[in-house]
Amino acid sequence: MADQLPRLLVLRLHSVFTDFESQLSQKFHLLKGWESPLPTADFLATNAASVKVILCAGDTPVTADVLHRLPSLQLIVATTAFPDHFDLPECRRRSISITNAGQVFPQNCADLAVGLLIDVLRGISAANRLLRAGFWPITG
Asked: Alpha-carbon distance 45 to 36, whole Å?
């Protein structure tokens, strides 16, 4: 059945992939580049001729050389906000579409960053650890 599914190329393992691997494997035949003992160029030459979609997590570079090895590529799905690690002129020349995370999580990221900053500046987590370890009466 996996041979009948469209091929999805994932070059580098990333938490986004591991979080959704079971769902993706139901819809796609997954090509996991990081599991191959072959160098990336050889892996692509062997497996990727019919790949139409690549999931690009993190800062995985998609260079003109990588694109050349993917003659059927139509879409790059990026998990980052800015696809500055892709060869955009080559993608444009070949009419390869690119999606990215865009502005999906900026408010959440900003809230978390401010929360962590307050935690560090005020020592909230450190004090919590002292309290739970029973050191509060001694060092509190």
From this structure: 12
> Distance between CA 60 and CA 86 in Å, rounded?
8
- Region for residue 82 given its phi and psi (left: phi exceeds 0; alpha: psi -120 to 50; beta: otherwise): beta
Per the CB < 8 A criterion, the answer to whether 67 and 94 are in contact is yes
Is 27 exposed, middle or buried (CB count within 10 Å of its CB: 0-12, 13-18, 19+)? exposed
* pTM for the model: 0.66
Measure Cα distances from 54 to 8, 68, 81, 105, 117 in Å: 6, 13, 16, 22, 36
- pLDDT given at position 103: 60
What pLDDT digit, counting tens, does each position of 7-44 carry? 888 888 877 677 778 888 888 888 888 888 988 888 88
SS3 23: helix
CA distance 8 to 29: 6
Q: Given this model, what pLDDT does residue 126 score? A: 87
* Cβ proximity of 24 and 7 under 8 Å: no
Strand partners, 8: 30, 53
Tokens of 14: 């990333």
